[in-house]
Amino acid sequence: MDPVLSIQKLTKTYDNGFVALKGVDLTIRRGEIFALLGPNGAGKTTLIGIVCGLVRASSGRVTVDGFDIAENYRAARKKIGLVPQELSANVFETVWDTVVFSRGLFGKKADPAHLEKVLRDLSLWDKKDSTIRALSGGMKRRVLIAKALAHEPEILFLDEPTAGVDVELRRDMWAMVRHLRESGVTIILTTHYIEEAEDMADRIGVINKGEIILVEEKHALMRRLGQTRVSVNLTDRLEKIPDGLFDRPLTLSPDGTVLAFTQNGESDARDAGLARLLKSLVARGIDFSAVQTSQSSLEDIFIDLVGKNR
Q1: For the purposes of burial, counting CB atoms within 10 Å of the CB of 102, is it exposed (0-12), middle (13-18) or buried (19 or more)?
Q2: Residue 165, H or E segment
Q3: Which of 16, 53, 217, 281 is the most exposed place for a label (fewest CB within 10 A)?
Q4: ABC transporter domain location, by residue (predicted)?
Q5: Which of 303, 290, 215 is nearest to 260 (CA)?
């Protein structure tokens, strides 16, 4: 899949000396959903700001669908939609006027049918004549999304799009994201709700202290770094783990009724390990009543990665 966004050796040092980005290299594929994860202050918003022309880079190069953002700013920016964290609209404007204005900013011809569809998809059509200041917080967030989609961008940045919003908006927005991806729009999101990245993203990138520490396919990442905890419920209590019972470390619960081990990597390895343990239990006459497995989440992997890079 060809790249739609290329970031090369990007750095940013602010006037106070704070180094926000340290030689970031990143390629985003056309039509994918890419989740950029990182703790507060990691550089996520600075990176998005540079790509969207809101922050000036100290050095490096960014191309958007082949257009350099420094040399061909208008052409590059026209391809990008941004949903920022904070409200960025004239609160005295109506919803309709603000999306019309946003479309016009990018030199797009008037297209009321497209704007109507965007507003209907976001459950804003009945609010089109309301001023933005009269809307609830959730509705204002919907307006930000509508503004970003008004000029039909090919790349959509979502910077913490569901922070503090209601469940209904979150559900509606992710349905729209899936629809946009199906139509060929590339989605790049940052989020503190890691379960959203786990559910939505094709690839995961992790940034910490201004550096990209990992970029990988989501499923490959979870297979490679994920862990499965396997627990076997015993029928009778054990005083201790018998010597030579298993070929890897086992734990015994305080009440002596649960044996457990942790398996990294593929499920095949987990299943093979479990089979060996059960065979050993049977051979020693140790009865068991149930087997349980629990898979580590993307959040567990993220916390571990960031912790190792502190």
Answers
A1: buried
A2: none
A3: 16
A4: 5-234
A5: 290
Per-residue pLDDT of the chain (310 residues; tens, 9 = 90+): 678 999 999 999 999 999 999 999 999 999 999 999 888 888 998 999 999 999 999 999 999 999 999 999 999 999 999 988 777 667 899 999 999 999 999 989 999 999 999 999 888 999 999 999 999 888 888 899 899 999 999 999 998 877 666 777 777 778 888 888 888 899 998 876 677 777 888 999 988 889 998 898 887 777 676 677 889 999 999 999 999 998 888 999 999 999 998 877 655 666 788 888 899 999 999 999 998 877 666 667 767 777 666 6
Q: Do residues 65 and 154 lie in contact, with contact meaning Cβ atoms separated by under 8 Å?
A: yes
The domain limits of the chain are 3-222, 227-296
- Taking the domain 3-222, which CATH number applies? 3.40.50.300
Half-sphere exposure of 41 (CA within 13 A, CB side): 5
Residues 6+ apart with CB under 8 A from 256: 234, 237, 238, 239
Q: Is 25 helix (H, G, I), strand (E, B) or coil?
A: strand
CATH domain 227-296 topology: Alpha-Beta Plaits (3.30.70)
Q: How far apart are CA 116 and CA 126, in angstroms?
A: 10
Over the range 56-75, which residues count as b (16 or more CB within 10 Å of their CB) and which as e?
Answer: ebeebebbbbebebeeeeee
